[in-house]
Amino acid sequence: MSKEFFEAVKMLEAEKGIPADYLYEKISAAIIVAAKHDYNGKDIVHCDIDPEKQKIKVYITKNVVDEIEDVDTDLTLEQAQAIRKSAKVGKTIDIPLKTKDFGRIVAQTAKHVIRQGIREAERGQMLQEFKSKNQELITAKVERVDPVTGNATLEIGKNQAVLPKAEQVPGEILTEGSNIKVFVVDVKEGGKGPKIMISRTHPGLVRRLFEQEVPEIFEGIIEIKSVSREAGSRTKIAVFTKDEDVDPVGACIGPRGQRVSNIVDALGGEKIDIVKYSDDPVAFIGASLAPSEVCSIEIIDEGAKSCRATVPDDQLSLAIGNKGQNVRLAARLTGWKIDIRPESGFFEGQMQ
Questions:
Q1: What H or E segment, with its residue span, contains residue 132?
Q2: Pairing between strand 337-342 and 306-311?
Q3: Closest Cα partner for 318 from 352, 350, 291?
Q4: N or C: which end of the chain has fewer CB within 10 A?
């Protein structure tokens, strides 16, 4: 049993990355707990595991006394000298537990602890792997889509994660076996192992896609100031640079529009407005209402961050957008409430 046991531990250390010393310590402790039951829980059981000699020694330590007070912990001198002739009163004596009496417990305990050790190590490895991907963009394989809930089970490396229906892009159909990009929103340690929260709708997904596609963003030359998104439909992203020789919007669009086109493809055709950020709220709000033209921006209440945007009459519907989407995204992007008015005069516009 010993030889097979030590070989199994070595194999686990090599394949699973579980330190052998960790397993020996756990197994030793578990064997001691199991053996103590025969001695009413008294703390007299010991277990020495020697990997070099490939030996497991389980023994109890008893006190040599003139008169026994506790049969679990005491031995008379006569009983002790029958085991070891040099035994003396006032000393202790180690008594090996016979393999035939204890071998089955050792084997069962070792198997249990090894299984537990594998589970703990795998959970620890999974947690570390997931944590290294927190707030990052990852590629996952669609393993299964639940026909009832619509939740998708994804394969991420050697692990699995669930993409809830609520975190999927509206109208998007996920097919089993296909690869998709997801954003890791958060990683938490749960009772049944690490829990990874992933999303296809989170603005962070767009942010990371731009970092991948636009070298100037990855290198820190261009900064993404804010992102507002209605997944599957439209996204607005505000970009900024201190480098006067760099056009932040043009860099994000890319030569012949290739960079932004790649991102649009990754998002399944979602429209993207790239806006130049400005510390001047008037300039920023005006830019945020793209693709609409803007005649003027009037700050109504700076403290409450509310303003009025005047647009050409023929640009009114474009500025507001379908069901108010354009002005709504512009408001989220800038952090300002925006009231849209036509250039020709009064209109009960839409404040967002």
A1: none
A2: parallel
A3: 291
A4: N
Digit-coded pLDDT (tens) for 265-310: 988 899 999 999 999 999 999 999 999 999 999 999 999 999 999 9
Q: CB under 8 Å to 164, separation ≥6 — which residues?
A: 151
Q: What is the pLDDT of residue 99?
A: 60
Structure tokens at 87: 């035994």
Residue found under tokens 């992203």: 237
CA nearest to 276, candidates 247, 234, 306: 247
| Separation between Cα atoms, residue 199 and residue 167, nearest integer Å | 5
The confidence score (pLDDT) of residue 101 equals: 61
- Looking at residue 174, what is its pLDDT? 92
Pairing of strands 137-145, 152-156: antiparallel
- Write down the residue that tokens 């002739």 correspond to: 85
Q: Is 38 helix (H, G, I), strand (E, B) or coil?
A: helix
pTM: 0.65
Q: Where are the alpha helices (DSSP H) in 42-98?
A: 77-83
Q: pLDDT, tens digit, for every residue of 46-70?
A: 989 999 888 888 899 999 999 999 9
Report which DSSP code applies to 160.
Answer: E
What CA dihedral angle connects 260, 265, 271 and 274, to 10 degrees? -20
